[in-house]
Amino acid sequence: MSGDLDRSPIITVVGATATGKSDLALDLAEHLGGEIINTDSMQFYRGMDIGTAKLPVEERRGIPHHLIDILDVTAEANVQDFQARARAAIADIRDRGQRPILVGGSGLYVRAAVDHMEFPGTDPEVRARLEAEAAADRWGLHQRLRELDPAAAEKITVNDQRRIARALEVIELTGRPFSAQLPDYQELEPTIHLGLSMDRGILHERIAARVDLMWEHGWVDEVRRLLAAGLAEGKTASRAIGYAQIQRHLNGEITAAEAKEETVIRTRQFARRQDTWFRRDPRIHWIDGTAADAGQNRTRALDILAESTDRMET
User: Do residues 145 and 208 share a domain?
Assistant: First the structure.
């Protein structure tokens, strides 16, 4: 069994939030003898369960999940660290004769795991200086990025202060454009990419319903617990969609209804950015999950995997 699976392509399951990636990944893992590697950067954080739609252990069907709950909320997610962990997990799963299935909506992290990508180091002083400049004048700093690296400026919005600062940090440290750090789509080993899509109107309804359900399941209390664990000091975790809005509500800045509404709006915007990122990748085989049930998605995915594997072998 292990000999055949060792040569089987890696699988990625990607797409916007709330499109059904987790269910499809579990179905594939059950059918193919796979284990799941998380590529959702917010699910790295211990305690951030409700707001990240993290599957409880009892709902994982006994399938091993890797790279979930690996960071405290005070830590900063690091794509270099993730890359090393993800590749080690892939090798470990292979060694045990199982199929690696990467699942999540953080596009850069998916590519870091499976593609030829190198990530420049960081300088805390340079990063702090640029982040302070971005906070003071994001428009001015975005214009500087546009002058130094127009391609990066096209992809990074003026409101994404952290990515503006990171892009300028890389340029300053390496003397090379930040956009050069995202090379053409070249995989380390054979990989089949599956993407779940959904009619935007239906996806918006699903996002609103999911946020309502998260609120009912105690999202506000979860944030209270995480604040006691240092959430407000975490540069990455504290800014996560929903967590940031609930903190503002708990601080008395906005009402609970306003926090919920803003969370829905930000999640819909995030889903649109995710879709834009993944649509640029010509390797992804798209499955329209708008009207399909989980069984139809699984059948379509298995057909794609069989067809793609046959093409790779001929």
Answer: no
Q: How many other C-beta atoms can be found within 10 angstroms of the C-beta atom of residue 8? A: 19
Q: How large is the angle between the packed helices 256-279 and 243-250, nearest 10 degrees?
A: 160
pLDDT in tens, 192-204: 999 999 999 999 9
Taking a C-beta distance cutoff of 8 angstroms, is the pair 117, 80 a contact? Answer: no
* Domain with 152 in it: 124-181
Task: State the burial class of residue 282 (Cβ atoms within 10 Å of its Cβ: 0-12, 13-18, 19+).
Answer: exposed
Report pLDDT for 3: 41
CA-angle at 101, arms to 178 and 310, nearest 5°:
100
Which residue did the predictor score with more confidence, 235 or 240? Answer: 240
274, 15 Cβ separation under 8 angstroms: yes
Q: In terms of domains, do 72 and 17 share one?
A: yes
Question: Does position 5 have pLDDT exceeding 50, yes or no?
Answer: no
10: left (phi over 0), alpha (psi -120 to 50) or beta: beta
If asked whether residues 234 and 95 sit together in one domain, one would say yes
Residues 71 and 165 in one domain: no
pLDDT, tens digit (0-9, with 9 covering 90-100), for 93-144: 999 999 999 999 999 999 999 999 888 778 889 989 999 999 999 999 999 9
250-259 contact pairs (CB < 8 A, 24+): 250/220, 250/223, 250/224, 256/220
Q: Which residue has the tokens 């915007």?
A: 269
- CATH number, domain of 8, equals 3.40.50.300
Structural domains counted in the chain: 2
Q: What is the CATH number of the domain that holds 177?
A: 1.10.20.140
| Residue 277 and residue 227 in one domain | yes
**Side-chain half-sphere CA neighbours of 171 within 13 A:** 20
